[in-house]
Design brief:
Helix content is about 40%, strand content about 15%. By secondary structure, it is of the alpha/beta class. The protein folds into 2 domains: about 140 residues, Aspartate Aminotransferase, domain 1; about 240 residues, Type I PLP-dependent aspartate aminotransferase-like (Major domain) (Aspartate Aminotransferase, domain 2). Helix 3 packs parallel to helix 9. Bound molecules: D-malate (MLT). D-malate binds next to loops. The site of D-malate has 7 residues, from loops.
Length: about 400
């Protein structure tokens, strides 16, 4: 008889954001007139920028006959792999075009990339963490080592004896805490991974929000990272592609484990398991890396950063401790009055119709914390800040 993957029984009953959306849906149905302010999931509210829209239109015309494309190369269109690699090189990370793989987004890729590693390998997750890191490894039956962090270390754990693992997840700027590893702190992890033969899975989905010059945008800005890291990035938050879907992954040729080159293995994987990302979407993505595209996406990011400032101002006035919001589109705050995360979620929904994300959804050490996303509309964010002030003052 067919046996299902029994590891699914070890997962929590539903995925964090699905669970919240169900709760919010029930509340909205019960309160049809309520104006809900959605600062929960990090989904963008601004449309794609003009340069991307123009490129998408042109690509549709190409598909109408002028320059028709069928199957795309599995690892990505050469024009986009080149544009991404040049973007890295401009930032001082010496990446070649064929070390870049185009994907349909970081969340898809973070799960798929695990195909490269033995199921007996262990995975280190620094909590609080994006829940897909844990869930994808639970599904594969992998042993997870949880490295807890908290206010005392700025949610930035350092390597230690307990952190030895085959795979090490690092997300900087961090989701959910918004904290960032500076060069010296990231250096320690690169050295640790090289010493132990680990592979770092570096989630750079929020790099475009970095404003402090000492914070690396890519792990490949650090010497030695090419022998121990894979970087996974996305245009979702950088350029508003959450619904359009496009990302990229960098696997250096120098990354070899057990005599096998992981870049070659990923070529083998992609050529078997995908037929590439759509030509139209890749054309739209390439426009992000043009001068005009970069200027326009920075304007949009500026709007989200202003949202962060609005929320941070309100929290300052309320005397609530928080981190993030500066180099990241998330503000991570302590629940007021010693409330638990889920209790504060219900309280904000009931009393102010504000939706956030309970910190406990990102791991046990997130209990007592709460996350606001800065991707809402400026109107909703201003209104949320006003409601917070009225409710908690
Ligand atoms: C989040 O809210 O943590 C993210 O939007 C989720 C994601 O990127 O999949």
């Amino acid at each position: 008889m067919l046996k299902p993957n029994a590891h699914y029984a070890e997962l929590k009953d539903s995925y964090l954001f699905y669970n919240i959306s169900q709760k919010v849906k029930a509340y909205a149905e019960a309160h049809p007139g309520a104006r809900l302010l959605r600062l929960g999931i990090g989904d963008v509210s601004l449309p794609l920028c003009g340069a991307v829209i123009k490129a998408l239109h042109e690509a549709v015309e190409d598909q109408a006959g002028r320059d028709f494309h069928g199957y795309m190369p599995e690892c990505g269109a050469p024009f986009l792999r080149k544009a991404v690699a040049e973007h890295y090189r401009r930032h001082g990370a010496m990446i070649s075009d064929d070390e870049v793989f185009i994907s349909s987004g970081a969340s898809d890729e973070l799960g798929d990339i695990l195909d490269l590693f033995d199921r007996e390998s262990t995975a280190l997750v620094m909590e609080p963490a994006y829940p897909a890191y844990v869930d994808a490894n639970v599904m594969a039956g992998r042993k997870i080592i949880r490295l807890r962090s908290g206010i005392e270390n700025g949610f930035l754990p350092s390597p230690c004896g307990d952190a030895k693992a085959d795979l090490i997840y690092i997300c900087s700027p961090n989701n959910p805490t918004g904290s960032v590893f500076d060069r010296a702190a990231l250096r320690k992890w690169v050295d640790f991974a090289n010493e132990n033969g680990s592979v770092i899975l570096f989630d750079a989905a929020y790099e475009a929000f970095i404003e402090d010059p000492g914070v690396p945008h890519s792990i490949f800005e650090l010497e030695g990272a090419q022998t121990c890291a894979i970087e996974i990035c996305s245009l979702s938050k950088t350029a508003g592609f959450t619904g359009t879907r496009l990302g990229y992954t960098v696997i250096p040729k120098l990354l070899v484990r057990g005599g096998m080159c992981l870049d070659d293995m990923w070529v083998r994987n992609r050529t078997t398991k995908t037929n590439g990302v759509s030509y139209i979407i890749q054309k739209g993505g390439a426009a992000v890396f043009t001068g005009e595209g970069q200027k326009q996406i920075k304007e949009n990011i500026g709007v989200y950063k202003q949202n962060a400032r609005v929320l941070m101002n309100a929290l300052n006035k309320l005397g609530i401790r928080y981190c993030g919001g500066r180099n990241a589109p998330y503000v991570w705050l302590e629940c007021p009055g010693g409330m638990k995360s889920r209790e504060f979620f219900d309280f904000l929904l009931e009393k102010a119709q504000i939706i956030g994300t309970p910190g406990s959804g990102f791991g046990e050490c997130g209990e007592g914390f709460f996350r606001f996303s800065c991707f809402g509309s400026p109107e909703d964010t201003e209104e949320a800040a006003d409601r917070l002030l009225r409710l908690l003052r």
